[in-house]
Amino acid sequence: MKGLRSAGGAEPERPADAVAFHGLSAGYPGRLALRGVTAAFPRGRTTAVLGPNGSGKSTLLGVAAGAIVPLSGSVARAGSTRPAFVVQRSAVADALPITVEETVAMGRWAHRRPWQRLTARDRAVVAECLARMGLEGLADRRLGDLSGGQRQRALVAQGLAQESDLLLLDEPTAGLDLDAQDRISTTLAEACERGTTVVHATHDLADAARADHCLILKDGRVLAQGPPATALTGDTVRESWGLTGLL
Ligand SMILES: Nc1ncnc2c1ncn2[C@@H]1O[C@H](COP(=O)(O)OP(=O)(O)OP(=O)(O)O)[C@@H](O)[C@H]1O
């Protein structure tokens, strides 16, 4: 991934896209999960990535995060910081012997080495992110001892603590109670207002309708993309999920 520069070379361009994929194919041994995806995450906006189970949403986020190497095609990343990637809570082992506070503090590893002591500013960021997710009272609890929703909030707090200009989240509000959903939605909207590009995979159509941009996948290909008003129509939803007569 690389930053983009203007033809004149003096000033870096401010490209419209935080990440642009061109003809991207990616997957796992013996399984192609993305097939010729040409799409973009607009810079400083929220993008909702939608599609049925197995359509390639997590894989696309993994490629944007640099965790999955494309098989072919290109990925251009315009930002200057390492992307923050909030995985699904099921991807985190129950037996991890770390506390909630330590989990959130790991977000600061993007700024210093794991063995380096946290600075006063690091500690202030960790405390603020714990508070934003309503986790102050759980800071000393083991991550693996938390409920699913509490654990999810800890992972989102870790992503926020990274203070990246690109925040990628894999179904951050799935299975959460209304208060936790509201906290996360509000926090992500605030991050976007501060200029962060926010991209989240979701199965929640109402959530997606509030995003600035939608990207709908089906069988590893782009079915539709654009503002919700044009991309998230009855036709695209029916076609993507193969629904008959429900919408
Ligand atoms: N670690 C893996 N090894 C092999 N195949 C995988 C792996 N992870 C995902 N896949 C396969 O890649 C394809 C895309 O999966 P992906 O997780 O990207 O879909 P998704 O849209 O995020 O699904 P969901 O809504 O269920 O989270 C699926 O066919 C899936 O079975």
From TrEMBL:
Keyword S-adenosyl-L-methionine among UniProt keywords: no
Domain of life of the organism encoding this protein: Bacteria
Gene Ontology MF terms in the entry: ATP binding; ATP hydrolysis activity
Entries under Pfam families matching the protein: ABC_tran (PF00005)
PROSITE patterns in the record: ABC_TRANSPORTER_1, ABC_TRANSPORTER_2
Keywords, sorted A to Z: ATP-binding, Nucleotide-binding, Translocase, Transport
Residue ranges annotated for the ABC transporter domain, each copy included: 19-244
Protein name: Zinc/manganese transport system ATP-binding protein
Organism: Allonocardiopsis opalescens
